[in-house]
Backbone:
């Protein structure tokens, strides 16, 4: 395992080899930007064979294309990156043609990183990564390496250093994946209507999730919820 960030990847790194990749991110403009940055196969050795904007689309595209690497955003409509990993367990375990996952997210929250790594992702890099370093990370993950942005590697190692350590926050474990998504958006100041639009659910459903989160965490209002989330670096 090593950091992604030495800038060593480049045109010459790919050689004649091609790695087939699927992009999973709910922001179309971001997917377009990544495609433009790394998807010129002749230059990078990366062939983007599919894209998806939510969990269901991701499973459909991954099943249809069987890529070598999936670039996976953590926060997705339909259950998040962890749900994609859960539903891709068979493909990940295939001894002949394993599908490997590299999380690519704006979030550097410990809970997000640990969640997807425990779910089976081979690495986690943030969206500040350069195009060359991302290509390098893709090739390394395709080869079975584990790759992390430098500042994330430390607490990943800490989290896995002791089998006696709890895998994740026990309070956070009480929440479903969708409740965690709503929690983070509430803590970031989103209105119920904005959350509903982003997650493709109704405002009433958002309200139900917020009520469930407050009840499970024994909190009284969204202000307490925001403080709770900030203390755990979930915002």
Residues:
């Amino acid at each position: 395992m090593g950091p992604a960030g030495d800038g060593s990847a480049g045109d010459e790194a790919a050689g004649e080899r091609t790695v087939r990749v699927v992009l999973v991110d709910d922001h179309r403009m971001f997917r377009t930007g990544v495609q433009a940055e790394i998807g010129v196969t002749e230059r990078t050795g990366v062939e983007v064979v599919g894209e998806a904007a939510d969990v269901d689309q991701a499973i459909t595209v991954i099943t249809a294309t069987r890529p070598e690497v999936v670039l996976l955003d953590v926060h997705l409509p339909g259950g998040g990156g962890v749900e994609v990993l859960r539903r891709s367990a068979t493909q990940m375990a295939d001894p002949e043609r394993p599908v490997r996952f590299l999380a690519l997210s704006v979030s550097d929250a410990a809970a997000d990183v640990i969640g997807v790594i425990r779910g089976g992702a081979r690495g986690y890099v943030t969206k500040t990564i350069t195009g060359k370093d991302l290509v390098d990370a893709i090739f390394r993950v395709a080869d079975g390496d584990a790759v992390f942005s430098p500042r994330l590697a430390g607490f990943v190692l800490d989290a896995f250093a002791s089998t006696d350590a709890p895998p994740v926050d026990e309070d956070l474990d009480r929440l479903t994946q969708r409740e965690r998504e709503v929690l983070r958006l509430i803590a970031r100041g989103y209105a119920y209507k904005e959350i509903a639009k982003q997650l493709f659910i109704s405002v009433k459903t958002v309200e139900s999730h917020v009520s469930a989160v407050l009840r499970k965490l024994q909190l009284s209002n969204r202000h307490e919820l925001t403080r709770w989330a900030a203390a755990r670096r979930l915002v």
The radius of gyration is 18 Å. Residues 5-14, 163-167 have pLDDT under 50 and may be disordered. The chain has two domains: 19-161, 170-232.
